[in-house]
């Protein structure tokens, strides 16, 4: 106890050492505090785009194209994969919207993350968890479909069911947001891939076919059996209306109905793999990414 | 012969590949390997081997680097060294090129550098394993043909194969050795002139000749044919051919002097030699081959392989040869050293709570055993529990636990993932949609659903629940009493139909009717008649949309009763066959599911529904078991067929679809 009193006396004494220590503490503390807080806020999280779609649509190929500028051969994915990509010089990011064409001052092309998810039926929970994950700033979803596959009934149904599921998750994310502000809207690009294939459907027809099919899916889903999870606490507020995608009760489904929930859907065609002339058509997809950054 | 070798990440990106076939093999081979083995985890007979079409795929994985190594070869040939090759390539690759799995950069590789290493590895292994492959191990095969006593100049002016071409490539020309062997067969009257067979590349005649040889000799000839190096086929000038042929004949003559069966050989002038003779000849050639190869390999190696790479490959091969002994040794060391270094144990315990611990087999063993007991307590069959545990173990082995996560928690999350994966169907079943698409359009016909199962599991009850569900959706339903065996079965259905009729009238929804032909008739015929009756007026307003067929309950191990299911499914040809299993049954559910699934064979002898048999399970009496819903997992584990409906109560409305998250939650409680 005596030690403590002695020490206290020293701190209040007008000795030079006590003054120096006090000065050091009072000057350094704010600096340390600032640097600590500054580091806490961290580097700005890069925007994330998620690649979703049925198996074999070309998601991983698109990922390699976005990340490396060239495609590599791919197989069925088993795990998700994130890659860091940079917008090519030819594409203008939305933040460069007001920049003059003649402005030649240095500009850095923005970077972003692309998350590739497996499309196999058993592994779709990866994609769904990526959508509900709030830690990552989700900017957009690229729903890749094989536009040649859509001409068959089975392929169309699979693509529409998966898209229905994804859009419903996004809609719930918007309507059931806990905060008043709600999460930011998400842009959805339906990338009609494999336009180079002879039997592929053009983007416009892909859009109408998907819309028609999704109206049917929506109808049968609403009439179908309840699942066994019903009545559990986290699903308590779910009624029929919240499980209905788009405008409630509407007979036809259009992607425009999703805008109410901050989901902008656009359908753009292209091909990841080079066609017979050795060309990949992805400029429009890049432009979409640039618009949504 | 090896067809292809690929290194790919688990995220599906091919890091490096080599295809010997031209054009490259279709990617569907590896895709189906991934979906069948890695994702759906269908059991194969041998681990790390997968057969598809006429190919055999062998694989190995590097879990922490997230890599899969796949080798493909035709199933006609058996390559014993492929396992070794996989292990060696994995070791080489992981050591030098692999980066951590979670890096933000996509994997990239200096392909050319790895090409060289791979070629060297293949060459090394291939020559080292099978004696018959020794006959022509390398691209400098021609130099080996010259006896060592002859001038070394022949070997020297061989162009060093700077671009190593795989020896598996099918050469255009038969090897000189083959040619000389053939020549020996034709007679040893020492004609130094090369036969046309020897110099003409790849003529069918040489094939014809080989076809006449004995089986062994033919095998060897084929091997040689497939394996002859490019150098030997590349500079096959007539002069060279003559030279080698001449030298070989010389060597042959020497052998003749030492040998004993000289007269016998002399007599054999035609190709239709007695098998014994040809065999003897082949054997002698074999001995010679090995000798030559030994000498040749001493000079041949190192010319084309970089020196350090060579040494490294040696080391890798040596280590891969004793993979079992080394880890065992270290494990023993660890155990004995535990007492001495108590501190490591304490840090281990600490890490168990804080996280960041690298999981070993010993770490996982205890918690996994607990987890297995827990699963069995939830009514999961032991076989299924074992499979889940082993899948968790392979998932977690050599992984590091996340910070502030204990081993138990890590295992729980991993197990939840494994359960989700096993229960989630590959393609979801939307019954209403498939019915609608079936009954509309130009080829409209009623949709036929049939229900099978063991006695007393609730087939008729679930059938009427489905009928109620369909009635709610305004379908016209025909219920067929195909249980012509048990007394009261038809009456039971009639009561259900009467109730449902009054229900549907009250709510003004669909229409239901019973089709019955009494007792004692053949169930298959009744079902067929019912389908014909329902399709009779398919286009009119009075059509039936759905035909629901109830069948007699049968014990799954009674072959006589079970075999009648095959005839039933062929005659009635149902769109969907559901099997009802009760949640109360324990381990037996596995056998039930398997036996029922294998009976549904179509007329071509193939299992219906793409070789699966059934379309789905209905698990009844789920309300009676609380959270012990392990039967779901057992049945899906046994067959890979998804659970589509759950019976959760006594009323018509108590039918539910399966919510995977709900089931997993109950099982992990």
Automatic annotation (TrEMBL), chain A:
Residues 94-118 are annotated as: Disordered. It is a single-pass membrane protein. Residues 94-106 have a biased composition (Basic and acidic residues). The chain crosses the membrane at residues 12-33. GO terms for molecular function: GTP binding; hydrolase activity. InterPro entries: P-loop_NTPase, SRP_receptor_beta_su. Keywords: Endoplasmic reticulum, GTP-binding, Hydrolase, Membrane, Nucleotide-binding, Receptor, Transmembrane, Transmembrane helix. SUPFAM superfamilies: P-loop containing nucleoside triphosphate hydrolases (SSF52540). It is found in: Endoplasmic reticulum membrane. Belongs to the SRP receptor beta subunit family. This is Signal recognition particle receptor subunit beta.
UniProtKB/TrEMBL annotation, chain B:
Pfam families: SRP-alpha_N, SRP54, SRP54_N. One of its GO terms (cellular component) is signal recognition particle receptor complex. Residues 170-182 have a biased composition (Low complexity). GO terms for biological process: intracellular protein transport; SRP-dependent cotranslational protein targeting to membrane. Keywords: Endoplasmic reticulum, GTP-binding, Membrane, Nucleotide-binding, Receptor. InterPro entries: AAA+_ATPase, Longin-like_dom_sf, P-loop_NTPase, Sig_recog_particle_rcpt_asu_N, Signal_recog_particl_SRP54_hlx, SRP/SRP_N, SRP54_GTPase_dom, SRP54_N_sf. Residues 642-655 form the SRP54-type proteins GTP-binding domain. Residues 129-253 are annotated as: Disordered. Residues 224-235 have a biased composition (Polar residues). Coiled coil: none annotated. PANTHER family: SIGNAL RECOGNITION PARTICLE RECEPTOR SUBUNIT ALPHA. Heterodimer of an alpha and a beta chain. Belongs to the GTP-binding SRP family. This is Signal recognition particle receptor subunit alpha homolog. It comes from Acrodontium crateriforme.
């Amino acid at each position: 106890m005596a030690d403590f009193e002695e020490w206290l006396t020293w701190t209040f004494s007008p000795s030079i050492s006590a003054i120096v220590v006090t000065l050091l503490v009072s000057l350094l503390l704010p600096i340390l505090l600032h640097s600590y807080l500054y580091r806490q806020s961290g580097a700005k999280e890069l925007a994330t785009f998620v690649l979703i779609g049925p198996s074999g649509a070309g998601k991983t190929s698109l990922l390699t194209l976005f990340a490396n500028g060239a495609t590599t051969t791919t197989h069925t994915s088993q795990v998700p994969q994130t890659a860091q990509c940079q917008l090519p010089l030819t594409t203008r990011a939305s933040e460069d919207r007001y920049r003059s064409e003649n402005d030649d001052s240095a500009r850095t092309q923005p970077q972003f993350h692309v998350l590739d998810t497996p499309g196999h039926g058993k592994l779709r929970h990866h994609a769904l968890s990526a959508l509900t994950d709030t830690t990552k700033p989700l900017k957009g979803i690229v729903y890749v479909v094989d536009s040649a596959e859509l001409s068959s009934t089975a392929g169309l149904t699979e693509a529409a069911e998966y898209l229905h599921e994804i859009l419903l998750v996004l809609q719930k994310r918007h309507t059931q947001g806990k905060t008043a502000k709600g999460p930011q809207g998400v842009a959805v690009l339906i990338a009609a891939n494999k336009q180079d294939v002879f039997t592929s459907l053009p983007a416009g027809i892909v859009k109408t076919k998907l819309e028609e099919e999704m109206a049917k899916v929506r109808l049968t889903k609403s009439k179908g059996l309840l699942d066994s999870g019903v009545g559990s606490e986290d699903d308590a507020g779910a009624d029929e209306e919240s499980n209905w995608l788009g405008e409630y009760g509407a007979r036809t489904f259009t992607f425009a109905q999703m805008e109410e929930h901050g989901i902008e859907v656009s359908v753009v065609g292209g091909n990841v793999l080079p066609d017979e002339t050795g060309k990949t058509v992805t400029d429009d997809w890049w432009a979409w990414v640039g618009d949504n950054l | 012969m090896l067809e292809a070798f690929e290194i790919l990440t688990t995220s599906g990106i091919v890091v490096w590949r080599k295809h010997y076939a031209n054009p490259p093999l279709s990617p569907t081979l590896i895709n189906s390997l991934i979906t069948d083995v890695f994702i759906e985890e269908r059991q194969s007979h041998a681990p790390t081997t997968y057969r598809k079409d006429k190919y055999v795929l062998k694989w190995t994985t590097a879990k922490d680097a997230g890599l899969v190594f796949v080798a493909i070869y035709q199933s006609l040939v058996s390559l014993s060294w492929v396992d070794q090759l996989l292990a060696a390539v994995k070791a080489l690759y992981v050591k030098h090129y692999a980066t951590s799995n979670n890096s933000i950069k996509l994997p990239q590789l200096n392909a050319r550098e790895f090409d060289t290493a791979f070629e060297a590895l293949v060459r090394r292994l291939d020559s080292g394993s099978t004696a018959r492959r020794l006959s022509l191990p390398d691209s400098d095969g021609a130099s080996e043909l010259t006896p060592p006593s002859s001038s070394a100049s022949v070997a020297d002016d061989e162009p060093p194969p700077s671009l190593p071409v795989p020896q598996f490539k099918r050469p255009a020309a038969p090897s000189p050795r083959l040619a000389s062997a053939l020549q020996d067969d034709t007679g040893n009257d020492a004609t130094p002139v090369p036969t046309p067979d020897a110099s003409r590349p790849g003529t069918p005649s040489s094939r014809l000749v080989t076809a006449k040889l004995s089986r062994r000799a033919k095998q060897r000839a084929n091997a040689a044919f497939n394996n002859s190096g490019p150098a030997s086929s590349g500079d096959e000038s007539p002069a060279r051919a003559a030279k080698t042929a001449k030298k070989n004949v010389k060597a042959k003559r020497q052998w003749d002097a030492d040998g004993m069966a000289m007269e016998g050989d002399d007599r054999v002038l035609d190709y239709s030699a007695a098998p014994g003779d040809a065999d003897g000849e082949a054997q002698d050639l074999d001995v010679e081959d090995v000798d030559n190869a030994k000498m040749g390999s001493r000079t041949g190696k190192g010319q084309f392989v970089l020196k350090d790479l060579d040494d490294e490959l040696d080391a890798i091969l040596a280590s891969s040869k004793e993979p079992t002994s080394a880890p065992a040794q270290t494990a023993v060391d660890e155990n004995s050293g535990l007492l001495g270094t108590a501190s490591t144990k304490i840090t281990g315990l600490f890490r168990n709570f804080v996280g960041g611990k690298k999981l070993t087999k010993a770490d996982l063993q205890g918690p996994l055993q607990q987890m297995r007991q827990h699963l069995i307590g939830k009514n999961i069959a032991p076989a299924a529990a074992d499979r889940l545990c082993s899948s968790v173990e392979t998932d977690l082995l050599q992984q590091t636990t996340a910070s502030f996560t204990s081993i138990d928690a890590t295992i729980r999350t991993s197990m939840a993932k494994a359960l989700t994966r096993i229960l989630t169907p590959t393609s979801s079943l939307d019954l209403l949609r498939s019915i609608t698409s079936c009954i509309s359009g130009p080829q409209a016909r009623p949709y036929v659903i049939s229900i099978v199962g063991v006695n007393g599991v609730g087939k008729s009850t679930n059938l009427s629940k489905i009928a109620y569900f369909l009635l709610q959706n305004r379908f016209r339903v025909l219920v067929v009493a195909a249980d012509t065996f048990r007394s009261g079965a038809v009456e039971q259905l009639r009561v259900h139909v009467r109730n449902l009729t009054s229900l549907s009238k009250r709510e003004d929804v669909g229409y239901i009717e019973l089709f019955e032909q009494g007792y004692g008739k053949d169930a298959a015929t009744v079902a067929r008649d019912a389908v014909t009756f329902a399709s009779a007026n398919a286009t009119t307003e009075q059509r039936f949309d759905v035909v629901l067929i109830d069948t007699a309950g049968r014990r799954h191990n009674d072959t006589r009763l079970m075999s009648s299911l095959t005839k039933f499914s062929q005659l009635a040809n149902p769109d969907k066959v559901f099997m009802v299993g009760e949640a109360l049954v324990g381990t037996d559910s596995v056998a039930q599911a398997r036996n029922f699934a294998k009976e549904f064979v179509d007329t071509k002898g193939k299992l219906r529904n793409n070789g699966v048999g059934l379309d789905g399970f209905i698990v009844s009496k789920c309300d009676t078991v609380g959270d012990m819903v392990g039967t779901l997992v057992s049945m899906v584990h046994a067959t890979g067929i998804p659970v589509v409906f759950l019976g959760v109560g006594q009323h018509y409305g108590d039918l539910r679809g399966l919510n995977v998250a709900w089931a997993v939650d109950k099982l992990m409680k």
